[in-house]
Design a protein that fits this description.
The complex is a heterodimer of chains A (383) and B (1140). Chain A is of the alpha+beta class. Chain A contains nine helices and 19 strands. Helices cover 41% and strands 17% of the residues of chain B. Classes of the chains: A alpha+beta (383), B alpha+beta (1140). Chain B: This is Ribosome biogenesis protein BMS1 homolog.
C-alpha cells in the first residue's frame, strides 16, 4: 500500500506494518499519519499493544507528538529526537517482548545516551521473535555495523510465557555517530548447533524430552550439537506455564540461523507433545539453513535498515529469499528515506540442475546492494 | 711421521696479486658500485654507532610519520568529476572581471564580453572549470565560500588588504576551507621599486598568517591594453589546472548544485492573469559533492527550503572530450557554457532551445544585459511555436556523435508509437490546446531520452534481464497468478483441511514451494519489491500513461471482463493485507509445514550446508592438498609438464566414482591447475612484498593498523565506484542517486514569483541538498565565541543572522555557560575572549558543523563603517534537541515573622500555600550564613511557612532561598531571503531589529528604575547593649572569668574616673608662702644631701685605694716568706739526699 504525501506527511492506510512505519518515522524525523485502522472490524481502532508501542516510543524520544482520533482508527505521529537512556517499560502481553525489542534494537545506536532498557512482559511468543533469538542472531548483526562492542548486551532476567507473561529482560546498547558500511557475501557452512530449552512452571522432564528429539534430528547432520535446558523456578518462571526451544546454527563465517518453537498457550486447550516440539523446531532450523544467506530470514529487515542508514558508501549482503515482511519494509524504506536497494537473484550452476527435479526447489539467494543515505546520529552530544 | 709430513708438504698455491689475470679476477669479483645505494656502498657509515642515538632517531622518525597520518577517509571523488568551482573574490574595483575575462581568453581563446553568473569551460582533457565572480555582498560571499573549490582572492596592492578579504577568509574557515590563492593587482600603481618590494613582502606575510605559511600569492604586475600580462595569466592558469583538492567534511556528506541556468515554465496565460502567481521554475546545474537523491529536500540559499518536484539528468552541455589519445585539446573541444552571460553552444532540452554561436561577436545582442528576462520568456514562447521542428531537429542534434536517428526511425519505435497514440487520444479528449502541447513537448523529450537509454540497453543489461526480455512483461502477471493459486489452495485448506490432514500437508507444502517459485521465476525481483518504479528521467505521469496504455492493450486482447477482474483482484488483495497483524517471520502467522529434512532423500540437498558435507572445490582441503602436491612436485618445469594434469584428472575421476560425492558434483567446477598456480603466485608476491625489503634494512615501526585502515577505505572507495558501473543508467540513478558530475534539471513548483522577476545573475544560486531530518526545526545548542575583531559584545535575545550548513537565517539566541554540573546557566552577554554556549531555535544540523553569526547583512556603507568587521561570532554545533534547559539564578527573599529558638516563621517569600508546598525541604540561608530548611506552610498569612535553622536567627535577618529559573528560547526562525528582494536592494535584507535599534529609531528612552539609582548611604552608629552575665552563670565561672565590677582602688572608684572627679585646689597667699618656704627648705636639704653623697663617694674611693695597697703589701710579704721557706726546705732536702 503506497503512501500518499500530504504536505510532507506520509499518509498510510490500515494497521498492518504499524511498527515499521512508526520506526521509520522516528528515524527519519518525518511525520506519518495512519488512517482506517481496522475501520471495518468489529473491534475498530488501535489494539492495546500498538498503543503500548507508541508509549515506548514516547519514552525513548523527546518532543514526540501523537494525535489519536476519537475512535482510534487514525493516528498522527510526529517524531521527536531520540533520547534513550534509562527506560523501563512493561510491554503489552498480547505481543511478545520481541515486538518491542526489535524496535529498540533498531533505534538503539542512534540515541543521545546509551540505551538501558528494561522490558517486562511475554518473552516468548508465537508471533514475535523471542529474546533468545535476538540475543543469538540479531546482536551479532548489529555488532557488524558498530564494530566495537562496548556495552551491547541483552540479559534475560526472567522468562515469561503467554498469556500472562511476567518475564523481564535488560537491553543495553551503545550509541554511535554513524554505522559502518557492510559487505557480507559469504556465509560459510554450519559448524555448530547450540540451543536452549526452557521449561516454565512445568515438569523438568519436558525440557529433556524436547532436547532429545531435537538432538535426534540435528545429529544426523552434525555431531557438534549442544542444547542447554533452562529450568526456571519460582518468580523466574514468570506467571504462566509453558515450555519451548530455540536452536541456533552457527556457521564458520559467523552467521547465525535461529529457529524456535514453543508449546501451545496454557488456556487454549491444545496439547503439545515435547517430542513433536523438538522435532518441529529442528526441522524449522533445517529449513532456515536451506534458505541460507548471510542472515536469518526474520532479521532481514533489520539488516536492510542498518545498511540503508550507513555512510554514503556501498553496502552489500547476500540473503536468502526475501520474506513478505522484508519486501514491505523495503518499500517503506524507499518511501521514508528514498533509498532503493539493488536486488539481484544470485544464480549458481546448481539451479539448472535442480530445475530438472521438481521435488526440491532450491532457495534463491538475493544479493542486496545499496548506497547508505549518510545517516548520522543527530541526537548525540559532542563536547 | 711429523717429519715425513713436513717433508711431503707441497708448496702452497699463491694467488696472483698483480698482472693481467689478477686484474681480470678482481674485475670479476668487484661489485658494480654504480648500482648500489649509499647504504650498501658504505655500510659502516650507516651502522649503529650509538644505541641511544639510534633510538632517538627512530623515535623522531616515528613522530614525523605519525604527525602526517590522517584518519583514512573513503575517497568519494566521482569518476567523471563536475567542473571545479573557481570563485573570484575581492573588494570592488580590484579587477575581478578583468581577471575572469583574461582567464577565459587564455583557456579557450575567446573573448567574452559580459560575464554574469557561472561560466563553465573545458580547460583540459580531464578538467573543467566553473568560474564565478563574487559581488560585494556578504550574502554572496557566504554562499560562494560554501561551494567554491578554489578561491582567487584579489587584492589591490596599492591599497593593501581590505576588511572584505579578512571577512571572506573567516567565512571560509567556518564553512570548510577551500583552496585559496591570493592575487595582487594594481602593482603598477606603486612607482617606487623599493616600496613595491616591501609592500609585496608585507602583504605576503600577512596573507600567510591568515591562510597558511607558504600559501601561493600571485602578482599581476600591471595592465596593458586593459588586460593583464599574458605570461602572468598563463602562469596562473597553469597553477589552477594542476591544483589538487582535499575533501571537506560538509561537502562530502551533502550534495549541492551551483545553478547556472534558470527557466520559468509557468504558462503565459496564468502569469498574464496574475503576475504575482507562484511560478514553476526550472534550475540547471552540475551535481557536486555526493549523489543527490531524487526525493530529497533542498535549500536554495537566499530563498528557503524547497522540495524538488522533478529531477532528471541532461546530456552534458559542456562535455569533456572523448577519450582519444591526444595530447592537446582540439579547438572545438574547448567549450564554454554560460547561459547567464549569453555565450555557449546549442543546447536542447525539455523546456527550451538555447542557441548561441560560439565566440562570435557578430551575433547581435540587442539588449543582452538589460532585458534578460524578456529573452528567457521569448525562449519559452519560441519552443511552443515550433514543436514539430524541434522534434526533427532534436533527433539530429542529440546523436550527432553516435548513431544518427532520423525522425522516420523514431516513428518505427514502438514506444514512440504508443506515446503518439496516447497524445492523440489525449488531444482528442482534451480540447484545450495548452495541455496537449505541453504533453507533446514532454513526450518529445522523453522519447529522446528513451532512445539514448535504448542505446545503453544493448551494452548494459538490466540485472533481471538474464535470459529473456520477453518474459519481463508477463512477470507481474505470473506472480499474481501464483499468488492466486496460493490463495485458492489456502481457501481449500480452510474448507476441507479438517478431515484430510495429508491433503493439508501437501497443500501447505505447495504453498511454500509456490513462494519460492514466485521469487525464482520472477526474474525481476526489483519489480516484485518496488512495483513499477520510474527509471531515471521518466516521470511518474508518463508511467501512469504507459500503465493505462498496457491496460488498454489488454482490453483489446482480452476484453473488458478480464481487465476488471484483474484490477479488482489487486484491490481485494491489498484490502486483505491492510489490517493483518504484523509479524516479521518468514512464514508470517500461519505455521508452515516444513519438509521432513531428516528423510534420506531430502537430506542430501541439505548436507552441503554443513561443515560435515562436501565443500566446493576451491575450499576442499583434500582437493587443495592434491593440487598442491601436484604443483609442488615439479617446480622446475612449471610450464612444460602436463602429466600432472592427467593425474589430477585421475583424482577427479576416482572421486566421481564414489557414491558419496554425487552431492559434491553440484558444486562449482574444479579450478584448473593454472588457476591455482595463479593464486599461489599472487600469494607469494604478497608475502614478498610484506617481508622482503631488499634495499632498506632499517628498522621500521609497525604501521599495520593504519595501513589496514587505509586499505579498507581504499577497498570501499573502489567498491563504491565499481559496483554500479555496469548498471543501466536509469536504474543506477534510482539506486545510487544522481551522482556528482551529472548535469541535472530540477523543477520547483510554487516558487514565489519574486525569485523570477527579481532575478539577478550576479548572485550565485546555491542549491544544497538536505540530509535526513535536516529539514526539521528544533533547538540547536552550540559553542560560540565572539570574534575578537568585532567591536561589541553580543546580547542574549538580540536577533542574530547565522550562516549554518547551507542556510542563512535570523534567530534569537540565548547565551549560557556550562557549569561544572553540566547545567546551562543563562548569560546576558557573551563573555569576551572565551567560548560560551548558545541556544537557538533553528534547523537541525549535524554536530560539529561550523557556523558564523552576523548582526546585519545590510550593505549600508555607513553601517559597515561603524561596525568595521561584520562577523560577530563563530562556533560549531554541539547538540540538537526538541527542548532546552537553560536556567537563571533566582533568589527568593523573605523576612522572619516570629522566631522561636531554632524555628522561625518566615513570610513574604511565597504568595500561596501551594508555592510553599512545592518548595518543602528546600535549603534556605540567612544573610549572616545561618542555614536552614523550609518545613511546612502556615495557615494564617498566606505564603508564610515554618522553617528550621541551625541557630537562632534574628528578626533583622533576611532569608534567601536560592533557586533556578528556566529560561525559554524564543521560537523565532526566519531565513534570509535576499534573492527575493528587488534587484538593487538584494544586499539590503533587513530582518528583525534589535530592541536598541528600534528605540534609537523611535527615540524611546526608558524610565530609570528608582530602585537602581544611587542614593546617599546614611549609616547610624550601632548601639550595643552591655554584656550581662546571669548571676547563676557567674557563680559557676572560675575567678578569672568572673566580671570584676569592683575596682581595687581605695576610693572604690575606677582610677580613670577618679581623675575626672577631682576638684582643682586654689591656694591662699599664706599657704603659697608656706609652700614656697617648704620648697626652698626642701631644695636646700636636697643640695646638702647631694654634697654629702659626693663626699662619701670620695671617701669610699680613698679607702678602697688604701685597702688595695695594704693588700698588695701583704701579698708581697707572703711571697717572700714562701720563698724563704722553700729555700729552706730545698736545703734540707739536699742534705738528706747526699746522706743517702
Amino acid at each position: 500500500m503506497p503512501a500518499v504525501l500530504e504536505n510532507d506527511v506520509l499518509v498510510y492506510k490500515g494497521s498492518n506494518f504499524f511498527r515499521q512505519r512508526l520506526l521509520l518515522s522516528t528515524l527519519s524525523g518525518r511525520a506519518v499519519k495512519i488512517e482506517e485502522i481496522r475501520s471495518g472490524h468489529d473491534d475498530p481502532g488501535l489494539r492495546e499493544y500498538e498503543v503500548n508501542l507508541i508509549r515506548l516510543l514516547d519514552k525513548v524520544t523527546n518532543g514526540t507528538r501523537v494525535e489519536l482520533s476519537e475512535t482510534g482508527t487514525s493516528v498522527y505521529f510526529q517524531p521527536g529526537i531520540l533520547i534513550g537512556g534509562q527506560v523501563t517499560h512493561s510491554c503489552c502481553t498480547q505481543r511478545g517482548v520481541g515486538y518491542y525489542l526489535e524496535i529498540l534494537l533498531a533505534l538503539g545506536p542512534f540515541c543521545k545516551e546509551p540505551l538501558n532498557a528494561v522490558l517486562q512482559g511475554v518473552t516468548h511468543s508465537d508471533h514475535d521473535v523471542s529474546v533468545d533469538k535476538v540475543k543469538a542472531a540479531a546482536l551479532p548483526i548489529l555488532l557488524k555495523f558498530i564494530l566495537v562492542d562496548d556495552g551491547l548486551e541483552l540479559k534475560v532476567v526472567r522468562r515469561g510465557a503467554p498469556p500472562l507473561g511476567g518475564g523481564e529482560i535488560v537491553f543495553k546498547c551503545p550509541v554511535r555517530r554513524h554505522l559502518r558500511p557492510l559487505q557480507w557475501t559469504k556465509w560459510g557452512l554450519v559448524k555448530r548447533i547450540r540451543g536452549v530449552v526452557y521449561a516454565l512452571r512445568v515438569s523438568p522432564t519436558m525440557a529433556n524430552r524436547v532436547v532429545e528429539s531435537a538432538k535426534g534430528v540435528m545429529l544426523k547432520f552434525l555431531p557438534d550439537v549442544y542444547i542447554n535446558t533452562d529450568q526456571c523456578r519460582g518468580s523466574n518462571a514468570g506467571k504462566s506455564p509453558g515450555f519451548g526451544i530455540s536452536l541456533v546454527a552457527e556457521t564458520n563465517e559467523k552467521t547465525f540461523y535461529c529457529a524456535e518453537a514453543k508449546s501451545a498457550e496454557s488456556g487454549s486447550g491444545a496439547i503439545t507433545s515435547p517430542e513433536d516440539l523438538g522435532r518441529e523446531c529442528a526441522l524449522q532450523l533445517l529449513d532456515e539453513i536451506r534458505r541460507g544467506g548471510a542472515i536469518d530470514s526474520s532479521l532481514q529487515w533489520l539488516l536492510a535498515l542498518w545498511m540503508a542508514l550507513g555512510q554514503k558508501d556501498v553496502s552489500e549482503c547476500v540473503v536468502g529469499p526475501l520474506s513478505d515482511y522484508t519486501i514491505s519494509f523495503l518499500q517503506h524504506l524507499k518511501e521514508f528515506f528514498g533509498v532503493m536497494f539493488k536486488l539481484e537473484v544470485q544464480r549458481t550452476d546448481d539451479d539448472e540442475d535442480s530445475s530438472d527435479d521438481e521435488q526440491v526447489s532450491t532457495a534463491h539467494k538475493v544479493k542486496m546492494t545499496c548506497v547508505g543515505i549518510g545517516y548520522v546520529n543527530i541526537s548525540k552530544r559532542t563536547l | 711421521m711429523a717429519d715425513e709430513s713436513a717433508f711431503d708438504k707441497k708448496k702452497a698455491h699463491r694467488a696472483k696479486h698483480a698482472g693481467r689475470k689478477a686484474e681480470k679476477k678482481k674485475k670479476k669479483h668487484a661489485v658494480d658500485q654504480s648500482n648500489l645505494s649509499a647504504r650498501q656502498r658504505n655500510s659502516k657509515a650507516f651502522a649503529i654507532q650509538s644505541a641511544v642515538r639510534a633510538e632517538r632517531k627512530f623515535r623522531r622518525r616515528e613522530d614525523v610519520i605519525a604527525k602526517k597520518q590522517h584518519i583514512p577517509q573513503v575517497d568519494k571523488t566521482p569518476v567523471e568529476s563536475p567542473p571545479i568551482v573557481v570563485a573570484i573574490v575581492g573588494p570592488p574595483r580590484v579587477g575581478k572581471t578583468t581577471l575572469i575575462n583574461n582567464l577565459i581568453k587564455s583557456f579557450i581563446k575567446t573573448n567574452v564580453t559580459s560575464t554574469n553568473g557561472p561560466i563553465t569551460i573545458v580547460t583540459s582533457k580531464k578538467r573543467r572549470l566553473t568560474l564565478i565572480e563574487c559581488n560585494n555582498d556578504i550574502n554572496s560571499m557566504i554562499d560562494i565560500a560554501k561551494c567554491a573549490d578554489l578561491v582567487l582572492l584579489l587584492c589591490d596592492a596599492s591599497f593593501g588588504f581590505e576588511m572584505e578579504i579578512f571577512e571572506f577568509l573567516n567565512i571560509c574557515q567556518v564553512h570548510g576551507m577551500p583552496k585559496i590563492m591570493g592575487v595582487l593587482t594594481h602593482l603598477d600603481m606603486i612607482k617606487n621599486a623599493k616600496t613595491l618590494k616591501t609592500t609585496k613582502k608585507t602583504l605576503k606575510h600577512r596573507f600567510w598568517t591568515e591562510v597558511y605559511p607558504g600559501a601561493k600569492l600571485f602578482y599581476l604586475s600591471g595592465i596593458v591594453h586593459g588586460e593583464y600580462l599574458r605570461n602572468e595569466i598563463k602562469n596562473l592558469a597553469r597553477f589552477i589546472s594542476v591544483m589538487k583538492f582535499r575533501p571537506l567534511s560538509w561537502r562530502s556528506t551533502h550534495a549541492y548544485l551551483l545553478a547556472d541556468r534558470l527557466e520559468d515554465i509557468t504558462s503565459q496565460e496564468t502569469i498574464r492573469k496574475d503576475p504575482k502567481v507562484n511560478r514553476d521554475v526550472v534550475l540547471y546545474g552540475y551535481v557536486r559533492g555526493v549523489p543527490l537523491m531524487k526525493e530529497s529536500m533542498v535549500h536554495i540559499a537566499g530563498v528557503g527550503d524547497m522540495k524538488i518536484s522533478e529531477l532528471s539528468y541532461l546530456p552534458d552541455p559542456c562535455p569533456l572530450p572523448s577519450s582519444e589519445k591526444k595530447r592537446h585539446l582540439m579547438e572545438r573541444e574547448r567549450q564554454i557554457y554560460a547561459p547567464f552571460s549569453g555565450v555557449g553552444g546549442i543546447v536542447y532540452d525539455k523546456d527550451a532551445v538555447y542557441i548561441e554561436l560560439k565566440g562570435s561577436h557578430s551575433h547581435k545582442h540587442e539588449d543582452e544585459e538589460t532585458n534578460e528576462k524578456k529573452a528567457l520568456l521569448k525562449n519559452v514562447v519560441d519552443t511552443k511555436e515550433t514543436v514539430d521542428e524541434q522534434m526533427q531537429e532534436s533527433g539530429f542534434k542529440l546523436f550527432s556523435g553516435g548513431a544518427v536517428i532520423y525522425p522516420e526511425m523514431m516513428k518505427d519505435d514502438e514506444y514512440l508509437q504508443h506515446n503518439k497514440i496516447q497524445t492523440k487520444s489525449n488531444s482528442d479528449d482534451d480540447s484545450s490546446d495548452e495541455s496537449s502541447s505541453e504533453r507533446e513537448e514532454e513526450s518529445d523529450n522523453d522519447s529522446g531520452i528513451d532512445q539514448s537509454e535504448k542505446d545503453v540497453f544493448d551494452k548494459t543489461k538490466l540485472p533481471w534481464e538474464d535470459n529473456s526480455g520477453s518474459e519481463q512483461d508477463d512477470d507481474s502477471d505470473d506472480s499474481d497468478t501464483i499468488n492466486d493459486n496460493m490463495k485458492v489452495s489456502n481457501e481449500n485448506f480452510e474448507n476441507e483441511g479438517d478431515f484430510d490432514t495429508k491433503w493439508k500437508e501437501k497443500l501447505s507444502e505447495k504453498a511454500t514451494d509456490a513462494y519460492y517459485e514466485r521469487q525464482r521465476t520472477s526474474k525481476n525481483i526489483m519489480k516484485l519489491v518496488y512495483g513499477d518504479f520510474d527509471i531515471g528521467n521518466k516521470t511518474k505521469q508518463k508511467q501512469e500513461q504507459s500503465d493505462d496504455n498496457s491496460d488498454s492493450d489488454e482490453e483489446e486482447i482480452g476484453g473488458l471482463f478480464k481487465k476488471v477482474t484483474h484490477t479488482q483482484k489487486k484491490k481485494q488483495k491489498e484490502k486483505e493485507k491492510l489490517d493483518l497483524d504484523e509479524c516479521s517471520f518468514f512464514y508470517s502467522l500461519d505455521k508452515p509445514n516444513v519438509r521432513d529434512w531428516s528423510s534420506e532423500n531430502n537430506k542430501q540437498y541439505l548436507m552441503n550446508c554443513f561443515v560435515t558435507g562436501k565443500r566446493s572445490a576451491d575450499e576442499d582441503a583434500s582437493e587443495l592438498l592434491k593440487l598442491d602436491d601436484a604443483s609442488d612436485g615439479d617446480d622446475e618445469d612449471l610450464y612444460g609438464d602436463f602429466e600432472d594434469l592427467e593425474t589430477g584428472e585421475k583424482h577427479t575421476a576416482d572421486e566421481s566414482k564414489d557414491p558419496q560425492v554425487e552431492i559434491g558434483t553440484k558444486r562449482k567446477a574444479e579450478p584448473t591447475k593454472s588457476e591455482i598456480l595463479d593464486k599461489k603466485l599472487k600469494l607469494k608476491a604478497k608475502f614478498d612484498a610484506e617481508y622482503d625489503n631488499p634495499d632498506d634494512h632499517r628498522i621500521k615501526g609497525d604501521h599495520s593498523y593504519y595501513e589496514s585502515l587505509k586499505a579498507e577505505a581504499l577497498k570501499q572507495s573502489e567498491l563504491n565506484k565499481s559496483v554500479f558501473e555496469n548498471l543501466d543508467n536509469g536504474l543506477r540513478i534510482e539506486v545510487e542517486g544522481f551522482r556528482p558530475g551529472l548535469y541535472v534539471r530540477m523543477l520547483f513548483k510554487n516558487m514565489s514569483s519574486e525569485f523570477v522577476t527579481n532575478f539577478d545573475s550576479s548572485y550565485p544560486i546555491l542549491i544544497g541538498a538536505l540530509n535526513m531530518a535536516e529539514q526539521n526545526i528544533g533547538f540547536v545548542s552550540c559553542k560560540v565565541k565572539k570574534h575578537r575583531w568585532y567591536k561589541k559584545i553580543l546580547k542574549t535575545n538580540d536577533p542574530l543572522i547565522i550562516s549554518l550548513g547551507w542556510r542563512r537565517f535570523q534567530t534569537l539566541p540565548i547565551y549560557s555557560k556550562i557549569e561544572d554540573d553540566l547545567k546551562c546557566r543563562y548569560l546576558k552577554y557573551t563573555p569576551e575572549h572565551v567560548t560560551c554556549n548558545m541556544h537557538f531555535y533553528g534547523p537541525i544540523t549535524p554536530q560539529n558543523t561550523g557556523f558564523l553569526a552576523l548582526q546585519t547583512v545590510n550593505n549600508n556603507p555607513n553601517e559597515i563603517k561603524q561596525l568595521g568587521f561584520r562577523i560577530a561570532a563563530t562556533g560549531s554545533v554541539n547538540e540538537i534537541n526538541k527542548s532546552t534547559q537553560i536556567v537563571k539564578k533566582l533568589k527568593l527573599v523573605g523576612t522572619p515573622l516570629k522566631i522561636y529558638k531554632k524555628t522561625a516563621f518566615i513570610k513574604d517569600m511565597f504568595t500561596s500555600t501551594l508555592e510553599v508546598a512545592k518548595f518543602e525541604g528546600a535549603r534556605i540561608k540567612t544573610v549572616s550564613g545561618i542555614r536552614g530548611q523550609i518545613k511546612k506552610a502556615l495557615n494564617k498569612p498566606e505564603g508564610a511557612f515554618r522553617a528550621t535553622f541551625e541557630d537562632k536567627i534574628l528578626m533583622s535577618d533576611i532569608i534567601f532561598c536560592r533557586t533556578w529559573f528556566k529560561v525559554d528560547v524564543t521560537k523565532f526562525y526566519a531565513p534570509v531571503v535576499n534573492l527575493l528582494l528587488p534587484v538593487g536592494e538584494k544586499n539590503a535584507w533587513q530582518g528583525m531589529k534589535t530592541k536598541g535599534q528600534l528605540k534609537r529609531e523611535r527615540n524611546i528612552q526608558n524610565e530609570a528604575n528608582t530602585d537602581s539609582m544611587y542614593t546617599e548611604v546614611i549609616r547610624e552608629a550601632k548601639v550595643f547593649k552591655p554584656l550581662t552575665i546571669p548571676k547563676t552563670l557567674q557563680k559557676g565561672l572560675p575567678y578569672r572569668f568572673k566580671p570584676k565590677l569592683k575596682t581595687t582602688t581605695l576610693s572604690g572608684n575606677d582610677p580613670k574616673n577618679k581623675m575626672k572627679e577631682r576638684i582643682a585646689v586654689v591656694k591662699s597667699p599664706y599657704e603659697q608662702k608656706v609652700t614656697n618656704v617648704m620648697k626652698m627648705l626642701k631644695t636646700n636639704y636636697e643640695k646638702k644631701k647631694e654634697v654629702q653623697k659626693e663626699a662619701t663617694a670620695e671617701r669610699l674611693k680613698m679607702h678602697k685605694k688604701q685597702q688595695e695597697e695594704e693588700e698588695w703589701r701583704r701579698i708581697k710579704r707572703q711571697k717572700e716568706l714562701k720563698k724563704k721557706i722553700c729555700r729552706h726546705l730545698s736545703k734540707m732536702g739536699n742534705k738528706k739526699k747526699t746522706q743517702m
